[in-house]
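Why should sequence recovery work at all? Because a backbone constrains its sequence more than one might expect. Tight turns favour small or flexible residues, buried strands favour hydrophobic ones, and helices have their own preferences. The token representation captures these environments compactly. In the example below, the structure is given first.
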């Protein structure tokens, strides 16, 4: 099983959630501004918003942000758990994959750390990937 795809998908999903969280933070800031000033941006000009409506809008935005923060935290936890599990892999192929994917290391850096040549690591990883793709095709 190729765990790197699952990890990559988790990282991509987490990034999407973080982008959405930033947008929700912006909405909370705008809703807070509406409460303070009593004015909300409208099509061109500002319109007056009653305090109760402003508070309602603010509370809704805060609730949505809180819910999203919980999901982002959950995904971060999953990512950390995956990284911890991947770090425990001891065979050379998984070590190469982990270091390149999670830590962003080059073959040159890995060769220096692991005591292999850069070319050996490249060939080893290439053969491993080809073997996996051949096995999954059959």
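From this structural description, the recovered sequence reads:
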């Amino acid at each position: 099983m190729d765990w790197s795809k699952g990890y990559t998908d988790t990282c991509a999903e987490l990034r999407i959630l973080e982008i959405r969280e930033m947008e929700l933070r912006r909405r909370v800031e705008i809703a807070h501004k509406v409460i303070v000033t009593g004015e909300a941006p409208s099509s061109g000009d500002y319109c007056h918003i009653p305090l109760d409506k402003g508070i309602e809008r603010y509370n809704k935005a805060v609730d949505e942000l809180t819910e999203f923060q919980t999901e982002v935290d959950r995904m971060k936890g999953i990512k950390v758990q995956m990284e911890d599990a991947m770090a425990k892999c001891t065979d050379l192929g998984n070590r190469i994959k982990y270091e390149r994917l999670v830590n962003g290391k080059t073959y040159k850096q890995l060769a220096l750390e692991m005591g292999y040549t850069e070319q050996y690591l490249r060939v080893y990883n290439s053969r491993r990937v080809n073997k996996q793709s051949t096995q999954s095709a059959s």
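A few observations help interpret the result. DSSP finds five helices and two strands in the chain.
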